[in-house]
Specification:
Elements: H1 8-26, H2 48-59, H3 61-68, H4 72-82, H5 88-92, H6 104-110, H7 132-149, H8 161-172, H9 177-183, H10 204-218, E1 224-230, H11 236-246, H12 248-253, E2 255-257, E3 260-267, E4 270-277, E5 282-287, H13 289-302, E6 305-307, H14 323-333, E7 355-358, E8 367-374, E9 381-386, E10 392-397, E11 404-406
Antiparallel strand pairs: 1-5, 1-6, 2-5, 3-4, 7-8, 7-11, 8-9, 9-10
Helix pairs in contact: 2-8, 3-4, 4-7, 4-8, 11-13
Amino acid sequence: MIEKGIARSSRKRYVGKLKTLYEEYSGADGSKDNPFAILSDSDTPAPHTAIENTATLSKNIDTLIADAKTRPSIALFLYLLFNPDTSLDEAINMEAGNMETPVELLHEILETDAIHHRRKYLFALNQSHKRMPQLRREISCSVELALARGGVKSGPFQAHTATELWIAQARKNGITIPEIRAMIPQLPPAYRFMDNVEPDNLSPDIKNGILRHVANAFGYNTYRWYAIKLRRGIPGSTAIKAIKEKLPEAAWQTNFFYPEIETARRDGKKIIRLRSPLIPGIIFARALPVQAQEIDRILRGQRYGRILRQNSSAKAEFSVIPQTDMHMFQCAAGQFSADMKVEIIRYAPIQVGRRVRITNGPLQGLEGTVTGTRTTPTADLLFAIRLSSSLYMKWQAALPSTSLELI
């Protein structure tokens, strides 16, 4: 009743009726054993603010994710949003090697693979024991400004703000109150009425699944990479064409990545060149979660294939490929999708075995092979260059090596 926005007077009248009925049918005179007695004087306000803010926050989650790359306070807020059982102080003092979360989106935001091994804290906030009060104020101001800019009317940011948003999103996506009680032992003020419900006994796998489910609900407006498994004998071009015909608007916004390699074989005096998929039977699609559901429905209806899920259950969540892993895969394949921003830099370090030409100085124009490099007190690098089979010389150059060019 509180979640539905029923007025407090109506709630009290309804609960009073239940209390009277329980006493009549159970024979209990006192309020000690009456489960409705504790609800009679409840004046908990309805959490309308958190419920309304979840939709606005989901629409602007991409902006927060982009800001989190350069603003540790926003990254900390997203961590609290996706891990509601973590307190603000725990998140501030969390060490880089101790982060354990099943939410793949957090690993992309925090770039955990690129964190330096000497870095102590997960969030670079210049932490110290004396700065904790100041850190709380700085984080509150930064997060409050970012949320207000996105249209989220959360008021002054407090430690339980992210928890209230998570509970509101969880309730909208079918997570029951006993499950929420098991996920969050200490409820925020707006949801204190849930203390009257006994928590479920959830396994760690179920808890991780709930965290992923709610995180995906927040990021429904975020493009992600999915893997499509094709049936044997179905070409990738045929499946992509069917998706574009059945779902033209989504296909226009969706990027398909189907890397191919070119092979050559000799047939007598002819050289036959063929193009074959790098990974047979797999198409990668970058789409919104809603579009992914439509793509999976089209593929199953045409009996072309399906989007891979986290397990064999038909109700399981789709498997999401992290953006960093997809980036590394495309770099290794040497082929890139339309969403990738590739910057080509012409740079080839001078290493042992490379052919070089001296471009200035008295030896300008001579060519040779680098046979070794080492540092010296007078030069950053010492290049040992063999000019021919009978002539050997040593030549010094300071970095950057402007006097050598690769041949």
